[in-house]
Amino acid sequence: MHLIFVVNIFLGCDSQREKDINNLPKPKDTTEKTVYNAEIKKSYQKYGTSHDDLLNDLGSSERSKDAIAKLVKIGKPALPSLQILINTSQDMTAKGWGIQAISQMPISEASILLTDIEKSDQETLVKTWAAAAIINRTTSKQELLDLVSYVSTYPALKRPFGLQLERLSGDLNALQMLELIQKMPTLQETFAPLILKSEPKLLIDVMLTHADMTLRRQSAGYLASMGRSNRNTIPQLLKAYDFTPSAREVMWKGGPLYVPSINWDKENGVALFAHLLSWHIFCEKQNLRDQQNQLYNNMRSVTLLQSIGMPRYVRNSTAEIIKAFAPVYGSRNMQVLLEEQKVYKQYAHLIGQ
After folding, report:
1. Residue range 54-73: mean pLDDT, rounded
2. Cα angle, residue 161 at apex, residues 160 and 166 outer, rounded to 5°
């Protein structure tokens, strides 16, 4: 019940709020369970404030909603009373609804009190509720991101944090989310679904050119998953790997070349292999041996070779690769590829011409 209370009351799921308010457990009492005895309740919850009646009602499933509304309307003068409730009450339900009342007050003093509660020596659950309320009160993406440490301190807030982030912005791009995950690994659970819903292009750029090698590798992993569910991923990958005749350098820079482990179908797999072969020839002409080896390491993928109908092993030799790929690609297509690289005469005999 406590976890539902945190998620539904403080961080969205508004459609459930009314239901949760009405279904909160009745406070423990020594009287008959079917009757809420207000006088006995007051006898062991006397706070010594001018708002005691409302504070007592926070422990009642029947009265809490109305009490919250009245306390919110009172506003700032009710905050000291609510602080006394949080500090002295043994009724966790009353404490929770007290924090809810504070969270609904649109004044800076309410935010200060919530922060004090979160930093206090209260029960972890109470501090979690306060942190959830603080998250829910944020009004900008940056303000929310400044609270990212709450996610590691209070693991129950992973999903609520992500939901609030979606509500506030949706502006965080995939790279920013990857960078945040790197700083706070616990955010993986929150951000992974959002990254997988993003457009592939930025992740492709990160995978091919980012200075951080970890981010390159992570991007390749996400793109592999996206390739199975996002139909835009494969066309954009093929576009990124396409050879440019005017190229002066390889299309990946300053690090390893990744080709996401997607279950390539034959048509797209053949197109990918042709692009990689073009770059392999380019690297041979430019004497870029390291980059040529990187290409070969991706071209020898068993799953890729099987999907396009090539032998499971081809030696790292431009001539051997051309010879093995020509029957799959077609002699005419291979001729065009070699002419584009201005090496047709050199390899024409390998494609039966």
Report:
1. 93
2. 95
For the chain, the domains span 2-137, 231-351
Arithmetic mean of pLDDT over the chain:
85
What whole-number distance in Å separates Cα of residue 96 and Cα of residue 9? 9
Whole-structure pTM over 0.85, yes or no?
A: no
| Whether residue 244 has pLDDT greater than 70 | yes
Closest of 275, 190, 231 to residue 11, by C-alpha? 190
Q: What is the pLDDT of residues 195-217, one digit of tens each?
A: 998 899 999 999 999 999 999 99
CB 49 within 8 A of CB 77: no
- Residue 115 CA to residue 264 CA, distance in Å, equals 52
pLDDT at 6: 47
Task: Supply the pLDDT for residue 228.
Answer: 84
Q: pLDDT category, 11, cuts 50, 70, 90? A: low
